[in-house]
Amino acid sequence: MRLGGAARYVIEVERPEEVPDAYGFATQYHLPTFVLGYGANTLGHDEGFEGVIIINRMRGITEINQSSTIKIMGGEYWDNVVAYACERGLTGIEALSKIPSLAGSAPVQNIGAYGQDISDTFVEAEAYDSATNTFVTLSKADLQFSYRRSILNTTAKNRYFIISITLELHPGSMSPPFYNSIEKFINDHDLTDFSPQGIRDIVSQLRADKLPDPLEKASAGSFFHNVYLTEEAAEIAADKGIPVRHGKDGYKVSSAWLIEQCGFKGKLLHGIRVSDKAPLVLINESATSYNDLAKARSEITGKVYDRFGYWLEQEPVEIQ
Ligand SMILES: Cc1cc2nc3c(=O)[nH]c(=O)nc-3n(C[C@H](O)[C@H](O)[C@H](O)COP(=O)(O)OP(=O)(O)OC[C@H]3O[C@@H](n4cnc5c(N)ncnc54)[C@H](O)[C@@H]3O)c2cc1C
Q1: Does domain 218-318 have CATH number 3.90.78.10?
Q2: Residues identified as active-site
Q3: For a tag site, which of 250, 293, 308, 312 has the least CB within 10 Å?
Q4: Whether residue 100 has its Cβ less than 6 Å from ligand 1
Q5: Nearest alpha carbon, ligand 1 atom 35
Q6: Where in the chain is the domain with CATH 3.90.78.10?
Q7: Closest ligand 1 atom to 42 CA
Q8: Which fold has domain 61-171?
Q9: Over its length of 320 residues, how does the chain's per-residue pLDDT go in tens digits?
């Protein structure tokens, strides 16, 4: 969001052996640590961070035993991983094209888009455990993935430093039916190429039409999670005329729909623009402080709560 003050220290690590030293430095000076990736899902506070930011700068993608299982160093830019897979005709992550992320951050909130989540292909991560000062391997089961969640942003938040991730992909392609907007794009443009590269091209176009380019406009992507309901609450919502979708993660109400219904679509609040194409996305147009963002956020969440009785939960992480 390009808001917030400076950090006291930043350490960039280029080899696994340097990770314990970075944490050791923080311990020595009694400072908190925060692991930063590309910064696409992170908010800084106005007063800055009196601690140590640690960044994974290890890059590279390698095939394991000449198979379609690949190991990616955590500092690699995520879209390079998707491009690598698509060039080799490997399916599993093509719908995750153009998500601004480093590979090490991708499992943290179980990145997902257009019907794929990274958990679908995730095998394991090599990590440094700052609680025990040891290197560990975290399996898919260890990470307990669900919608935009894993232990890395819940029960074990700030504990592990992801060094590398391993994904199991497959030669082949996604099969229909596709996610609604992909399906519509295919029909509208009479497309027949569903290869990983074909789907990557479609997703790239869909995202370019809808989402702000993070290098041009400051945003954190979706600012709020969608609302998940129990079956009983979903029935009540449907009775009230609220559209509820039943998907693989349960009963979902689109937070973009709720925000739009409250009249915020396209509105400018304290320098923060609610995107007119994707109302879940807040763009920093002229806000100068985290405080401006906090005011905009509370206007949106307050009105949605008053009207529908749902508290919108923020997606981006705060450095603190
Ligand atoms: C325009 C835009 C579109 C987006 N679209 C999507 C989308 O379609 N789907 C989606 O899921 N997300 C989306 N996002 C959100 C964002 O891209 C993802 O959350 C992404 O994984 C963030 O990666 P990052 O490297 O920027 O992480 P950061 O924002 O730097 O960090 C995010 C979290 O990961 C932790 N972390 C980072 N690196 C490591 C590491 N090596 N070890 C342990 N913890 C680490 C941080 O401490 C923090 O808690 C979008 C964001 C933007 C700006």
Answers
A1: yes
A2: 148, 222, 315
A3: 250
A4: yes
A5: 105
A6: 218-318
A7: 29
A8: 3.30.465
A9: 999 999 999 999 999 999 999 999 999 999 999 999 999 999 999 999 999 999 999 999 999 988 899 999 999 999 999 999 999 999 999 999 999 999 999 999 999 999 999 999 999 999 999 999 999 999 999 999 998 999 999 999 999 999 999 999 999 999 889 999 999 999 999 999 999 999 999 999 999 999 999 889 999 999 999 999 999 999 999 999 999 999 877 999 999 999 999 999 999 999 999 999 999 999 999 999 999 999 999 999 999 999 999 999 999 999 98
Task: Let me know the angle formed at the C-alpha of 222 by 272 and 279, rounded to the nearest 5 degrees.
Answer: 60
The tokens describing 117, both together, are 């989540």
Cβ of 82 below 6 Å from ligand 1: no
Atom of ligand 1 nearest to the CA of 37: 30
CATH architecture under which domain 7-56 falls: 2-Layer Sandwich (3.30)
Judged by phi (left if over 0) then psi (alpha if -120 to 50, else beta), residue 82 lies in alpha
CB neighbourhood size of 263 (10 A):
11
Q: Which two tokens stand for residue 175?
A: 């099969």
